[in-house]
């Protein structure tokens, strides 16, 4: 049975988006994405990451779709590293044969548009959604935005010639294991000594808050950002996509006593606990399931944290964590996931460990010269 590769029209992605529903239909841990959200996310006008050349490919066996991939020019990494770097995203495959064929198609396309290397799996927005490949921690369903895939994908990538580019870690914080008394003492001492306080984000002045977040990003350590610090357009896009689902009580900004922003931590309820009961559709009846299970969510997804260099080791991020964990506990949440944090980014995952976090997942970026 031969495999046929087709490039898919960007305006006709229905089969591309729906392929995982076929591949994961017997996997009880898989969380179906909202189909409409996927469609909106892949529109170039809504997604600044797709500003370079990019293409969608699908593999068919006897007329049936069996694999897919998005490949394109990673403008941000190309500019920051001084060479033309390609990315791939949204990889899925039914088996090794179809997986290798679709990777070959992506590689050939990237060569044609002048790329020197390919790296992935990237988020299709270069954001938090589906970053890297899950290589450790398959025991439970993924949290919101986290990557999920079969274990054998790792063997497939390595057989294609990919090697490790970087690992990202996921930590789990059980509310019952958070050393609150010790944590409060450490943070309280740091607040008095360094003169700062943590506050929930003010949604009534969101634009000003976002500008402060941008200021923190601009003054943070850029060494952990292979693609460079995100610009205002990326920050605004991310904020717009999260606005409808964010709980402002779970997003904290840390400020000096004079009001200067120095750190922030963004977390949201783990809506995957509701989405896993739906079939990728909010309407007409999915909304009722969502509203029912939304009230029963027990987890919080801590998505990102940043601190200006001057305050990196002064417990500023820990102050935000303490505020979030105390608020979450008061709202009935029982655990939190903090991911995806770079393996070498000690200054980011040490505050998570201080809050009682334990590593339970690992994600990997793969790359190869082409």
Radius of gyration: 21 Å
Percent of sequence in beta strands: 25-35%
Distance N terminus to C terminus?
28 Å
What general form does the structure show? Answer: globular
Mean of residue pLDDT values: 91
Number of DSSP strand runs: 13
Largest sheet: 13 strands, mixed
Q: Output the helix-strand order.
A: EHHEEHEHEEHEHEHHEEHHEHEHE
Provide the low-confidence segments as ranges. none
**Helix/strand/pairing category:** alpha+beta
Q: Helix content range of the residues, please?
A: 25-40%
Number of helices: 12
Could you walk me through the main structural features you see in this protein, from its secondary elements to its overall organization?
By secondary structure, the chain is an alpha+beta fold. Helices cover 34% and strands 28% of the residues. The protein has twelve helices and 13 strands. The chain has helices at residues 14-23, 35-41, 75-81, 96-112, 153-159, 180-194, 206-218, 232-242, 272-275, 286-294, 316-330, 346-354, and strands at residues 3-8, 54-61, 64-73, 85-93, 117-122, 133-136, 163-174, 196-200, 251-256, 261-269, 299-307, 335-342, 358-369. Strands 1, 2, 3, 4, 5, 6, 7, 8, 9, 10, 11, 12 and 13 form a 13-stranded mixed sheet that branches. The two termini are 28 Å apart. 41% of the residues are buried. The mean pLDDT is 91.
